[in-house]
Amino acid sequence: MEWNGNHTSVTMFVLRGLSDKKELQLILFPIFLGIYLLTLIWNLGLILLIRMDSHLHTPMYFFLSFLSFIDICYSSAISPRMLSDFFKDEKRISFIACATQYFIAAWMGMAECCLLAAMAYDRYVAIGSPLQYSAIVAPGLCSKMVAGAYVSGFLISLSLTVSCFHLYYCGPNIIQHFFCDLPRIIPLSCSNAFISQIILLLEAIFILFGSLLVILLSYAFIVASILNISSGKGSAKAFNTCASHLATVTLFFGTALSVYMRPSSSHSMKQDKVLSVFYVILIPVLNPLIYSLRNKEIKEALERVIKRKT
């Protein structure tokens, strides 16, 4: 706490962490460290593979490389701090560090929503208008959609961070989470947080539901296009091109909606922490696997790169 004239203000927050049990923390540390290292290795490896192999220089893999970059940044904003907190009795984080962590995590999270919507549109054009695909989804349009995703995420994250952290905090300063999350921070404010809550709600609806609406509409047109394909083999091939993206969308939006869009009366701290671990820690490591394990083009590209190097 810091004394300012006639009142005190919070200069740091205390994170509760995943668990208070030291024995459990010692077990969780190597597990989450391994997951974080795998996240870095697999996503960096996928980015390098896409850059090195000319056969993967297509819009789908262009978007995928930026999705991997987002996953690296998102995980790196939270995981290193969480890992270091396993060895601390009191998990303190400064006011500025907390704001920075939330800003980066929110930026990457919002950008991923927009990018997944762009990837859904790409799959719709590839299946619905295959002959015009190269003309519609040109490199210039791909770059603009990626830039739009990053800029939108940046601006919205900045406005959310400023609206939350300009509030007056006089205590308590304990965040019931293992990272700085806005819905857990705003209730700690001593000033009127109504405007910040409205901004949070509106921008969550605009980005989360806006992106989800674009994805649902794209898949509605994709299903209609697949039903018009006469051969069963052609339908199966068309669906396989969407399976990885559909799995990623289901995991990401399913966990995000279950955490942030439930009524506050049904909120459980432990349930929220478990779901948050899933979308903060596990999804960034699962995304490259989802796109790689059953992807013939990725496997062939990896074989070509290995042959060239050896």
From TrEMBL:
Superkingdom of this protein's organism: Eukaryota
Residue ranges annotated for the G-protein coupled receptors family 1 profile domain, each copy included: 42-291
One Gene Ontology cellular component: plasma membrane
Keyword Cytoplasm: no
Primary location class: membrane
Keyword Membrane: yes
Assigned protein family: Belongs to the G-protein coupled receptor 1 family.
Descriptive protein name: Olfactory receptor
Organism from which the protein derives: Loxodonta africana (African elephant)
